[in-house]
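Each field is set out as follows.
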Amino acid sequence: MFGPFPGSVLMKLVRALVPLVAALPLLLARLWSPTACREGETGPAPAPPARSRPRVPRPRPYVPVPAATLTQERAADFARVAQRHAPLWALAYDPVQTVVFTARHRVLADLVVGSSDLDALDFALTEFTPPGYARAYLTRAEQARTGAGV
């Protein structure tokens, strides 16, 4: 089909050459990188000098400290959010946890959403659509007529 080569041999040749051509820029970048072109450098770059002092772990400021109690207006906001989402979600407040506000789905009991900010939880519950489930398309009477039931 393409000159003296049969189609399958040509495809094997293309499959062998394409990865090599794709790796060629990476190989060239390693060969002509600025660190490899220094005079007198034959091996890998030397390791940085060892530290004389051991590292002390830093405090983690990004972990929020939970609020001790709800203020009266935040409690009123929590009650409004809980009432708004009451048909599908059971909201709870736990001041000991890092995630102080949690919502458990009333139908799918293992589905829990949590947040440390009440506005974020309200937004998440408003926008969240629980996963669908498989529904039977035939009624029992139709299954009995066709003999597919039992």
About this structure: The chain has a mean pLDDT of 77.
